[in-house]
Amino acid sequence: MGSILIRNAEIITMNEKREQLTGDILIEGTDILAVGEHLPCPTDAEVIDGTGRVVIPGFIQTHIHLCQTIFRGRGDDLELMDWLKGRIWPLEAAHDPESIYYSAMLGTGELIQSGTTSIVDMETVHHTNEAFEGMARSGIRALSGKVMMDQGEDVPLPLQEDTMTSLKESTDLLEKWHGYDQGRLQYAYSPRFVVSCTENLLKETALLSKEYQVRVHTHAAENQGEIAIVERDTGMRNVEYLDALGLANERLILAHCIWLSDREKEIIRDKQVKVTHCPGSNLKLASGRAEIPQLLDAHVCVSLGADGAPCNNNLDMFNEMRLAALIHKPENGPTAMDAKKVFQMATIGGAKAMGMEDQIGSIEPGKKADLAILNLNDLHMYPSYDVDTISRIVYSATRADVETTIIHGKIVMRNRILTTMNKEE
Ligand code: GUN
Ligand code: FE
């Protein structure tokens, strides 16, 4: 792999000092080699003229279900448990290796086109190997895993599995894919949610996550009906139960966290559990609104995710960022969730959730070259001197403004054309 020089662009670094500068970015192999003014151009470098363009760290979405991409629009206007039992589980049960591969390709294509370079993804019970093949081909950076679900009512036959099979298949996939392409793909154990998992499965998952030092990715405290089932079956609330089984630690990524008791908030804060906020999904499934400003005030690591395509009808981080900013304003005031906080959750916050803050989430020498190049020169984005670029991105940009996406030093979309889906490249 050669080098790439992006010249004369506005760069939103998201480094420690949050510097925004105009200059060049030199990429060598998978990494950023230098950021600065008038960098020398290696003879073999591909040069991208960044004049009038804005370069940002690629977005990091920490809760996605690629396997659900092709179910978009199938199951609107329902609440969580009815939606899972009536629509999502039967659809997941019907997946075959080919459909899951194409669902992953469609989803990753959509993510790359809207500037997302890394995801934390959850597949279904079967055919996860083919989903990994799709992720490998597309060029996305991902931490993904097979869903684990060894109990539950109204679960279709193809999604039923026993505890030992669930654990073994997960660990086999981990051994096959964790670390693929110099660490671009990684494995995360993915118990669906407490409702779907036996105590034994969750305890064993905690031990495996410790042994392999990998993330556990699950849903928690999303919906009041879900919480009532957990309380009925365990006598505890979601996060308390996960903690009692040894799962609440810095490797745990919890999607949603809308309905948290004070004790659950304390566990999340004290054990450094990572929270993924999914505002689009939370609105569409009528789940509620997570108290993100309060969690951020308590120094909890919060990042963003679109959830599956049927939860909000697109996988677009611009949509999630805008909703994340807007939904708190009526109750908590205009600065409760400002553009900078949201942009931080969408970039460096996601990197922290993945345990990769030393590798991704900002534009700095030594980090992986995961970037999106935006063209904000449309008339609707006409620059104004008193509006910060981050505000323009959060409140006005759309996926159509993403011109080029680079992941792991590779151009995966050039001038809106997905290069990895093109047979010639
Ligand atoms: N909780 C358990 N499974 C799911 C799922 O597939 N999507 C969402 N949004 N929540 C869940
Ligand atoms: Fe989800």
UniProtKB/TrEMBL annotation:
GO terms for molecular function: 5'-methylthioadenosine deaminase activity; metal ion binding; S-adenosylhomocysteine deaminase activity. Zn(2+) binds at residues 63, 65, 219, 307. It catalyses: S-adenosyl-L-homocysteine + H2O + H(+) = S-inosyl-L-homocysteine + NH4(+); S-methyl-5'-thioadenosine + H2O + H(+) = S-methyl-5'-thioinosine + NH4(+). Its cofactor is Zn(2+). Keywords: Hydrolase, Metal-binding, Zinc. Substrate binds at residues 92, 222, 307. Residues 54-412 form the Amidohydrolase-related domain. Its EC number is 3.5.4.28, 3.5.4.31. Binds 1 zinc ion per subunit. This is 5-methylthioadenosine/S-adenosylhomocysteine deaminase. Gene3D superfamilies: Metal-dependent hydrolases, Urease, subunit C, domain 1. InterPro entries: Amidohydro-rel (IPR006680), Deaminase_MtaD/DadD (IPR023512), Metal-dep_hydrolase_composite (IPR011059), Metal_Hydrolase (IPR032466), MTA/SAH_deaminase (IPR050287). Pfam families: Amidohydro_1 (PF01979). It comes from Salisediminibacterium beveridgei. Catalyzes the deamination of 5-methylthioadenosine and S-adenosyl-L-homocysteine into 5-methylthioinosine and S-inosyl-L-homocysteine, respectively. Is also able to deaminate adenosine. Belongs to the metallo-dependent hydrolases superfamily. MTA/SAH deaminase family.
